[in-house]
Amino acid sequence: MSFDKMKWSLRKWFPTTKKFQKNALLKKLSRFEKESIARGVAIGLFINFLPIPFQALWASLLCVYFKANLPIAVSLSFINNPFTFIPINYFLYKVGTLILGEPSKSFSFPEFRFDLGHFLTSLEFFKEWALGLGKPYLLGIFVVSLSTSTLGYLLIQAFWAILRKYSCTPLERMK
């Protein structure tokens, strides 16, 4: 299938600008307003660092609940992808060890053989490995997720205020 054919076949599945304007929910979730964008950035950055599947889906659900900008939140949830997964999670672990003041343990994964006959033994092995890294890793996830989402929210608020200050006339600023 050529690129043009694929592009046209995908267009019927993805919402267009007209569809966004007609659908009330999509219109609210794609607003270009200070609060909506700041919430979208915060949600996207928070979800990004959580080691959960379907991050874009969770970001979408949180956007509906918090009335945040959906495209921005979903875009930011893709920062953590198969190429960046290992460095990001290693960083989360290191942040946790720094906060706890513990020395870093080996982050390498020992030889692991999954055997369906010994399923419980395999689970026990994985549990022991995860518990060895668990406390610093979970603390790193919590601290980095919360701090980046808060920082992203505040930076958007500050950027928007600066943008408004220098791009509007004094009469428009009084509104």
Integer tally of domains: 1
SSE order, one letter for each helix or strand: HHHHHHHHH
Please count the helical segments.
Answer: 9
Query: Which runs of at least 5 residues are low in confidence (pLDDT < 50)?
Result: none
> How is the biggest beta sheet arranged?
none
| Class inferred from helices and paired strands | mainly alpha
Q: Helical percent range?
A: over 70%
- Total beta-strand segments: 0
Shape: flat
Instruction: Provide the residue-averaged pLDDT.
Output: 77
Structure description:
Helix content is 71%, strand content 0%. The protein has one domain. With 175 residues, the protein is mostly helical. The model has no long low-confidence stretch (mean pLDDT 77). α7 (85-100) packs across α8 (119-167).
Annotation keywords:
mainly alpha
Brief sketch in words of this structure:
The protein is mostly helical and about 180 residues long. It contains 9 helices and no strands.
